[in-house]
């Protein structure tokens, strides 16, 4: 992933849009909402992001820009087992979502709006999830080589299943107002990857 440079105004717009998508979804926010949060005119937002579609694609890139380095750092920690790396992934996702104003995963919120999203946003949301899938697959494959991973499932299936569990646990934790379901996913990993 290439390094991206953002102006302060772009960062403020992207942070506001990211938060609004994670709280409300793509279809439930407007440039007027961002304008009120950032304190700039909607025309200034349109200058940087001519359409809501452009903004949504930029928000996904923005979040990937923020999470790829920490995920690479987790993956590179040789002292952590594959199981510990997966738990660290869940903790990192939870820190960006549920523990931050009960937000949902950006990709999950966009997936829930998929039928009304422009194709470019759908494509970028799939790319977002593919980054997570491949990260999990790489961690599991490395763990298998070290004798830490002995799954009954193919690694790619387990990676998809784990993403489904994480997304579902975030939804249910948000609905019930506690992190019990997120903790169940961690327990599942501990049980399956003894």
From TrEMBL:
Record flagged with keyword Ribonucleoprotein: no
Name the Gene Ontology molecular function terms of this record: DNA binding
Question: Per UniProt, which keywords does this protein have?
Answer: DNA-binding, Transcription, Transcription regulation
Ranges for the HTH tetR-type domain? 7-67
The answer to whether keyword Transcription regulation applies is yes
Q: Which residues bind DNA?
A: 30-49
The protein's name: Putative transcriptional regulator, TetR family
Q: What is the originating organism of this protein?
A: Legionella fallonii LLAP-10
The family database entries (InterPro entries) matched by this protein are listed as: Homeodomain-like_sf (IPR009057), HTH_TetR (IPR001647), Tet_transcr_reg_TetR-rel_C_sf (IPR036271)
């Amino acid at each position: 992933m290439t390094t991206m440079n953002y102006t302060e105004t772009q960062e403020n717009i992207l942070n506001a849009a990211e938060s609004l998508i994670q709280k409300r979804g793509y279809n439930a926010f407007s440039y007027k909402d961002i304008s009120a949060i950032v304190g700039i005119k909607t025309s200034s937002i349109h200058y940087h992001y001519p359409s809501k579609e452009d903004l949504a694609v930029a928000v996904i890139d923005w979040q990937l820009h923020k999470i790829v380095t920490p995920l690479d750092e987790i993956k590179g920690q040789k002292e952590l087992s594959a199981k510990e790396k997966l738990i660290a992934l869940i903790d990192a996702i939870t820190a960006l979502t549920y523990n931050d104003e009960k937000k949902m995963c950006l990709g999950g919120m966009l997936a829930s709006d998929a039928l009304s999203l422009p194709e470019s946003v759908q494509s970028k949301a799939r790319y977002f999830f593919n980054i997570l899938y491949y990260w999990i697959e790489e961690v599991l494959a490395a763990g298998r080589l070290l004798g830490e991973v002995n799954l009954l499932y193919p690694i790619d299936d387990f990676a998809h299943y784990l993403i489904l569990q994480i997304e579902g646990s975030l939804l249910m934790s948000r609905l019930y107002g506690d992190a019990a379901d997120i903790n169940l996913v961690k327990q599942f990993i501990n049980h399956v990857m003894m």
